[in-house]
Amino acid sequence: MRNMIKTQGLTKIFKIGKKQETELVAVDDLSLEVERGEVFGFLGPNGAGKTTTVRMLTGLIRPSSGSAQIAGFELGKNDTEIRRNVGILTESPGMYERLSAEKNLTIFANLYDVPDIDKAVNKYLSMLGLWERRHDAVGSFSKGMRQKLVVARALIHEPQILFLDEPTTGLDPEASKTVRDFVEELKTEGRTIFMTTHNLDEAERLCDRVGIFQQKLLTQDSPANLREKMYGRRVVFHLRELQPAWVDLVSSIPGTGSVEAVDNKLVVSLKDPDESNPEIVRTLVAAGADVQFVGEIRHSLEQVYLEMVKGSERVQQ
Amino acid sequence: MKHIRTIINKEWSEVFKNRWVISTMTMLPLLFTALPLVMLSMTGGSTMSAEISAESSGLPAGVVASCAGLSAVDCTQIYLLNQFMLIFMMMPLMIPTTIAAYSIVGEKTTRSLEPLLATPITTIELLAGKGLAAVIPGVLISYAAFGVFILGSLLLKLSPAVFSHIISPTWLLGVLVLGPILSVIATIFATYVSSRASDPRVAEQLSSMVILPLMLVMFAVLAGKLVINIWFMLIAIVFCAVVAFGMLHLGTVIFDRENILTKWK
Lengths: 317, 265
Ligand SMILES: Nc1ncnc2c1ncn2[C@@H]1O[C@H](COP(=O)(O)OP(=O)(O)OP(=O)(O)O)[C@@H](O)[C@H]1O
Ligand SMILES: [Mg+2]
What we know:
heterodimer; A: six-stranded mixed β-sheet; 14 strands; B: 13 helices; binds adenosine-5'-triphosphate
């Protein structure tokens, strides 16, 4: 089995209002595939339907239509098996505040039918540096310690697939890093990870592939491919002085797309900068330009994201 | 079974750390056991040993009529005992109500339901675990209180007629059989109310309305309109058992996973 998560036309419609008279389409016709060992980032603005998607994929709420296979099990038919193979870090992960860290983990190890409960609990308590505090009530823990504990809780049954719903939201940089490092470690163990996040840097660093989602899946690909698909590759030529005629001159060179003049710079879209750059430089120098500096414009995933999300809002209105 | 045990264990370790729950669980049985014993001992030593008559006792006529052949003291005590039996039915109603209210509302306020529902536990196991965690202490405590009451009655040296009333089939059925059935009803009712409330005290108070029917019976007995005999008890047991099964069935229909997750807030 290659695809650990596979969905076809997954849709969730909530009935809202006093008399359940209004329909709210939270997730619309979602089809996606996540391979074994892949880290998939699910990006979208507030209210996009990310949490709803995670809840459907973990068998917590029923899809209105569509189907999904998780770890090879059919959603809606084999939900107990799915739950055994899936770990989830929920958006607001509550703990039993009056109980100790150890007790919290033990309860979940029991519910997940972990074979050697003490071993699993001790492993995660020491791995995440909570060993010394294992007998303390969780109510006395800091946010970072809690987050470690809820991650441990999601992993206690060694699931093949891990769903992380905004795992670093509200954490300080250091605690976020701990969580991120942990995700990277899990990735090397070959686990499949589906994470939602608002942190695009994080998505870019951790995810093999990202999906940009707002009610519908707008696009999905690796962060690098997404950038290239949307903006192509663009090169900027800094000149000491810019003459308007050079715009047309550069446009006429084969392989160049759009050419824009911005202050003393020419911004050129190129299919293959490695091929075209020397030719453009030669042409400009021959025309009497002083080329000071040549550089590629790097678009961040954030720009791609904002553009996609803005575009989809316009379509919706 | 393991999942249910885990839930019960979890509930007890959490809920029993709550002072209010603990005080309800201790004060109620103390009060409800001590009060009847004190009242019995106060009526016991009186001089009303003559044959009972409606005018002299001040008891409702219906009660007096049922006391043929008993002394005034015995009749008064039996009349009181009939109220006390109802008090013993209140414990299995009120203790589970308190536990269930704190357990459900607590789960909601800490937002620990979602991770719980993500585990392979079935909804029935979850509800059974939570329900039993509330019912078991209610039943055990009321049994224990009844045991203490019987011991106390022995020490008070009640007349044989009065004592045999306490261990009559009607009483035993009431405390040992009807009590647990009532606590099942109270727990389901409290679970339902608590799933809609955000404050455990409010949930507890609203759920306590489940004792209203019992209060009605109590007033009817006080007014002499109703004498609780074995037939009344058997009918009450059958009726309440049917209600309990109906509520259990309804509960498993209403409370599916999605509903628990999205409607319990
Ligand atoms: N149980 C529910 N009943 C009714 N509507 C709901 C329910 N759960 C979610 N919604 C609606 O579905 C939409 C998607 O919500 P969801 O929580 O999935 O968004 P999200 O992408 O996780 O947002 P955020 O980034 O804020 O966490 C929202 O409009 C929300 O109001
Ligand atoms: Mg969300």
